[in-house]
């Protein structure tokens, strides 16, 4: 903490940085394109269900908009996180941070401003997703329930944790290329563990397994990794939070909400440390 | 590189040496684990195993826990059997399973079961007699496990009933023979121009559908949910090696009423509505039939490992619904905007195959005078355009059955291109914002 920099100063600085960063993002096409892409993916999921209904005459679903909203959250938060990473690295490379840090701004307020900005952008995009879900529900008569709002709330926290992770990567990587590679590697690791395990489980159950089947070792390794990532990956926490919502388990919902907040705090603290260690 | 000189290694040399060692170990391990399996006859070895007969919600299932499995799983508040057995086990590499050769060796290992809960309190259980019985006509409703003195009593009653049935069967056989003899005599008399009276044949004896295991000895457990440890203490007071296991007794996460949902257009391919949070979406003008059954939701890993201790392809994070018995006939209420608008009864239906080569069928109400037996029973629901209703079962006293409620919604057709166009709404908003920004900047210049 800079000597003499009070909490109110930091909040003011973070608010200013966040506001400017939000305006800057809203005046560029990126967020609109990614939101549209996310909605296209989500629409495909909904239309897939409707196509099955046309074919089968009947469809049994629990929450038709949970998965589409989850997909939107994943795509939006990944974009916003990568955006935050690259913004941080670019501003450091261009010396903007050095200039900023001469004023009443330090690492905490700068990173908090970035996090605040990306959270606001997600909230705006989430509002559009909610509008889309409401419109599609009205058109098709698919049930849109109030708990979609809770899923978006979980998505907001997930986005915060992912963006904080992106800031950590940005603080860690000295150049844009390094940060990008680190970010993509981390993303691949999470995706491989989260979505690879069911695939491997499926393959292992289809083929006659024996003690020399490499899938068994891969499955064990992925299971171990998955267990670890449960507490590191915000997407895993969000997915489990949604499951708790479905079964109406308030205790587990609180646990996973707390898990998301904890991840956000952990990654943010890591980002502050990395920025301090690397210097502006 | 000279390894004999005594000067201090540089950091790069140390790193290089570490990498070489790591690579050697990795390659050795890989080669060791990648050796092909030698095809050979499985070698049997004597082992202590826990043979389990567990209540899986509907019926009893048997399996055994291999010596290297650490945890046993049991459903809470149900009676299960744990039998300490000495047998011969062997690896079956084709399925990667450990199998037991029960025919070669299957001996009860006597002793006391020591059960320790997670507070460290121990309970000691002796071996007890047990028997499992059910009626084949309604196995799920009648299955029961009897232990202790009741096991012998129940088995004696079963044995008596079986013996009585044997006698009845013998008497029936004699009656059949007498009837055949009468028929033969009547036929012979007819050839001589005489007419003898032909009596009615004996009524067929209903099948003996009761089933019972023999009285066996094992430990019978009925525990509340929780984590325990268990082991077998031999008569000499020594713990049987490899008998110590963790015991996880798990309870259902939720109970409910599930539905088998049969669309009239595909009645042989029903959909399942297990989760009480499900909504059923249907095309306007369609009809479907609901068949309710009781169910509970349990952890997939615990349930699968309880039934098969070597089960693979299961996840600890997932939950599965277990269907138990068909829900007894009650009334299905149809509720629209909070008001009960109709009551539907569980009715029999008959599926009539349409003549001709079109392979079609028609589902109609069962007419006992025209058909032998119904094809199925169910609650028939017709879906109208724009209809949003909720259905729920009510019991004999008119109370809603918990977990039986489902939303039924008629789907409206949409143009796919329009849905995709709707997804491009953010681009429209973006274009408007950017245009506004461009004009604002331009006006300031």
Low-confidence runs of chain A: 208-212
Helix content of chain B: 10-25%
SS-based class of chain A: mainly alpha
Shape of chain B: flat
Q: What is the CA-atom radius of gyration of chain B, in angstroms?
A: 34 Å
Strand content of chain A: under 5%
Helical content of chain A stands at: over 70%
Tally of DSSP helical segments of chain A: 10
One letter per element, helices H and strands E, the order of chain A comes to HHEHHHHHHHH
Chains forming the largest contact: A-B, 54 and 58 residues
Note the gap between the termini of chain B: 71 Å
Report the uncertain regions of chain B. 1-8, 34-39
Mean pLDDT of chain B: 87
Rg of chain A, Å, rounded: 21 Å
Span between N and C termini of chain A? 14 Å
Report the major sheet of chain A. none
Integer tally of domains of chain A: 1
How much strand of chain B? 35-45%
Strand tally of chain A, please?
Answer: 1
Beta strand count of chain B: 26
Helices of chain B, by number, come to 6
